[in-house]
Fold this protein.
Amino acid sequence: MKYQLSILDKKDYGLLDDLAKSVSLDEELDKLATFIGAFNNNELCGAVGFSFAKETPRLEHIILAKNYQRTRLGVILLKAMENFLEVSGAKQYYSYILNTNERMISYAKKWGLKLKTEGKEGSWFYKSIK
């Protein structure tokens, strides 16, 4: 399946909100993050959000529509984000995952993120991209 990838503009944030609601996202969207969206036939079917709030970029969200959760779209979006970060000069990025979200921790490890610090409520992971 072919996807059209693009940096989401503020005008696309309504679509992003709809996508988040459709999958019952369990956290508030960080609207200050940069989002790369994947479109199929003008439908937003997935997005990855990352921020540059600190010196090291941070993966904030990866959201996939239910029909795309068992496809390679997540990998496509993560690769697009890593390419963007690498071109921007980043050497690694971090992600904070709640300890109760075992599925995301499993995906993070499969994607190559390594545990940096473990806390009571969540853990920090990182990945080198160069």
